[in-house]
Design brief:
This protein has one domain. It is built from four helices and no strands. The termini are far apart.
Length: about 130
């Protein structure tokens, strides 16, 4: 029988609860058939794309925090790809999910904006920008 210590479970819950709830928030937004919009289409486009960038930047940040809290500090830099991979997979599944929401459609372009948000935080974190 495998024994799991209570402090370890608490550590993982503390680490992974914020990105989980943020992902649920993104899912709820994606499940809306109509989102509020601006009358001017250019402003609406910019606002929605900046929203994609922002929510996925936050998701990446939270996932990166969770991964760093759940691995030893000595190996934390070896796992730099994991938050990016998880963010990319979630972005793709979110766009796929939108295919089934009436009035919405998923696009690879939106996935690109999602990943742009994650990459901005990644580059800032590793001091590329």
């Amino acid at each position: 029988m495998i024994s799991i210590s209570v402090p370890l479970v608490k550590q993982y819950l503390w680490a992974y609860s914020p990105p989980f709830f943020w992902a649920v928030f993104i899912f709820i937004l994606s499940a809306q058939d109509v989102l509020p919009s601006f009358e001017l289409s250019t402003i609406d486009f910019i606002f929605k794309k900046l929203s994609h960038i922002f929510v996925y930047a936050v998701l990446y940040f939270l996932l990166n925090r969770a991964v760093n809290q759940s691995v030893s500090p000595a190996t934390a830099t070896k796992h730099w790809y994991l938050p990016l991979l998880l963010t990319a997979v979630y972005a793709l599944t979110d766009e796929f999910h939108q295919q089934f929401v009436p009035g919405r459609y998923g696009t690879l372009r939106d996935t690109g904006y999602d990943l742009l948000g994650a990459l901005i935080v990644f580059m800032r974190q590793y001091r590329y920008i």
